[in-house]
Amino acid sequence: MTAKSPTGGRAVFRHVDYTRYLFSRFLWGLGLQIQTIAIAWYVYDVTNDPLALGFIGLAAFIPAVPLSLLTGPAADRYDRRIILLICCTIMALCSAALIWLQYTGNIRADQIWPVYVVVFVLGCARSFANPAGQALVMTLVPDEEFASAAAWNNTFNQTASISGPAIGGLLFPLGIYVPFGAAALAFLVAIVLTARIAYRPQKITKPPVTLTMLAAGYKFIWNKPIILGAITLDLVAVLLAGATALLPIFARDIFQTGPWGLGLLRAMPPVGSVCAALALAYFPLQSGIGKKMIFAVGVYGIATICFALSTNIFVAIPFLIIIGAADMVSVVIRQTLIQVETPNEMRGRVVAVHTILTGTSNQLGEFESGALAWMIGAVPAVLVGGAGAVCASLLWLRLFPVLRQRERY
Fold it and tell me: For the whole model, what pTM was predicted?
């Protein structure tokens, strides 16, 4: 009798190509986080303008929606390794471009637009890299080990989200070239690892994402109140209470710290997300999921308000952790409801719409926060956003009774 191969824990690491992909994904995610934190601090340090921070989010948002019609079909039609290699190369070139712009003195308070061009290009690369990477994972491990592979993938992604901002914040005082150089190095190593993944022929089994298909996804969501309520609640909360874009202002002007403080602040929401994800993995929600999702958004808003009122970085940190944890609870419930409530033949289109809405709301939320802070100040802007999230959670209790009354998945 043949013994079965292990399918959990670290068993997936026996697949060499999956291991190469996992560390490659971690490295280019780490590079992006380092680069993001350095760009945010540098832009605010040069301009002293909250609106300039908001434009970073806008520049990242602009390519996301139109490219969403191309990135999925590209991942299905072309070699996903090649897509990742091209994207990582573009990311490394963006780091080199930032170093060159600084070296030549082409970045000034009155001429910050070259940075936005780089952020735009990075947004294009990320738009193609994410679906290609997610699709590639499914070809690197057997079907029975995919759940374990996906768990490790999320773990490494969150680790990059935690460590990247901290590393970027610590490297920035050594000079602007250092964090951008470190990001470029991470991208280059990711390129080497990706290039060593063996080629696997892929069949084109999915139709290309078209406007008609997306319209069908929107129509389905509109006619499904529980999904509409879950998605729109997250959308409104993130748009209103997106304090992340303003962290450079809090780190420098309110908490009187340097780039290390910004890195620490940016790392805290992912810490909360990881803690909440682990808790939900061991203690899955069994009842009252609708109310708990709405409650989580309310907690998200209250924690945002408390963060805005903080005058010390160490007082603010627990509230950022709570923000990340509450957001993760909302994300897990929303994604599970979408999977459960959507028939298999519509799932791809609904997930595509969900990805567009939730993926771009973060960038739009950063722009909204920057613009509002430019008008009324950073602290009032975050207070208004947090209060808006709390009000939205209370309003959704009334607007979407089907969500409020949902007990189980």
Answer: 0.76
